[in-house]
Amino acid sequence: MHQRADSAAILELLTFRVNGQAFAVDGRTVRELRGWTPSTPVPAAPPYVQGVVNLRGAVLPIVDLNLRLGFPAQAMTDRHVVIVSQTGRRLVGAVADEVMDITPVAASDVRPTPSVAPAALRSLFEGVISQADGGVVILLAFDALIPDG
Q1: For 49, phi and psi rounded to 5 degrees?
Q2: Exposed e or buried b for every residue in 76-85, given b needs 16+ CB within 10 A?
Q3: Half-sphere exposure (CA, 13 Å, Cβ side) for 146?
Q4: What number of helices (H) and strands (E) belong to the chain?
Q5: CATH top-level class for 2-144?
Q6: Where are the domains of the chain?
Q7: Residue 29, helix vs strand vs coil
Q8: pLDDT in tens, 71-111
Q9: What is residue 110's DSSP assignment?
Q10: For the residues of 33-96, what is the DSSP string, one character each?
């Protein structure tokens, strides 16, 4: 009986683009959307961490999704969007090229990610969702954007 409830569950996904490709994150984890602003660099941080910003007294790490997902770096503009997400006890900001929509998706429509992605990136992917137009949206695990430790 519990399994039937899970398969009927509807996920509210925030969809966005990075390097022209569609991605999504669980909308329940999204705290806010902000315009891009320069951040303070952190010495010895991974290249995909742009730096940190002060978000109402909290230090918010900012992840460049282009670099984190293996795409080429882009110059940031005021058109970029920071998706602020609460992952467990950690807040993280992720820079996307644009936010598209909030899309309801049946949990049963989320399929396993094909194993063609490099092993270093697989932990970032929670699954894929096929679209009616034949495209695919990749569901990202924002809690894996910055490894613990």
Answers
A1: -90, 110
A2: beeebbbbbb
A3: 23
A4: 3, 10
A5: mainly beta
A6: 2-144
A7: helix
A8: 999 999 999 999 999 988 889 999 999 999 999 999 999 99
A9: P
A10: EEE----B--TT--TTEEEEEEETTEEEEEEEHHHHTTPPP----TT-EEEEEEETTEEEEEEE
